[in-house]
Queue: 3 jobs
Job 1
Amino acid sequence: MTLDAILGWNDESATESQFRIYRSQESNPSWEADFSQLDTVSADTESYTDTDVPKVENLTYAVVAVNLAGQSDPTISDT
C-alpha cells in the first residue's frame, strides 16, 4: 500500500507558465540545500497529489510559480 499526500495552494500569479513541486525528507530543511524537484504542473493548477509518499518521519513540500522572469519564492508547508 502506498500513501498519498494532497497539496493545495492559491494561484495568486497571473503570469506563471508552470508550478514546480519540491519535496524534502530533512528535519528543518533549508530551501537551498534540502529540497529536490518532484514534479511540474501547468499554469492555473491549484493542487497536486504525490502518489509515492515515502514512509519517513519528516516530509516537507514546497511549491514555486515559474514564468519567463524566473521563479517565485517557495511556499513551504509541512505535512
Job 2
Amino acid sequence: MRLAEAPPNAVVTVVGIDAGPGLKARLVGMGFVSGARVRVLDNRSGHVIVALEGGSGRVVALSRGLADKIVVEAHQQG
C-alpha cells in the first residue's frame, strides 16, 4: 500500500520508496527509511500529515504526490 492510501490513525511501517535517487534521498533525509514506523494523523485534505514514531517524533506534512511514492505495510490494530 502507499502512504497516500493509509487512513487517519493508522500505524504503518515504511518498506520502500518508489522514486528516483534525488527524491529518495530527500525522503530518507526526512526520516522515511525502511523499517520506520509512521502514524497517519490526517489524510482527508490535500496533504498527508504523519508523525514519525521513535526517536524524533517529528510531524511532517507531505503532498499527496510525495506520499504516493512511499510504500508502507499496515500494522494490525489490536
Job 3
Amino acid sequence: MSRNPPPRVADPEGDKRRALKLAATAAHRADLAEASRNNAVRFAADVGASLREIATATELPHMTVKRIVDRERQSANPD
C-alpha cells in the first residue's frame, strides 16, 4: 500500500521568499556564466582568433564579440 504525501498547506509568503531566492541564485549564476564567456572570448582574441571565428564558435553575433573584445581593450588602454 503506497502512501500519498500530506496535502501542502498554502504559504504564499514562504512561496514568494523561495521564488525570490531562486531568482537571485539564477541571476548570480548567469552573471558568473557571462563573465566566464567574456573571459573565454577575450582569450581567444588574444591568441589570434578572428572576431568571426570566435562568433562562429560561440554562436554569438559578430558585433557582440566585437563589443566584448573592444571593452577589454578600452579598459586596458584608457586615454
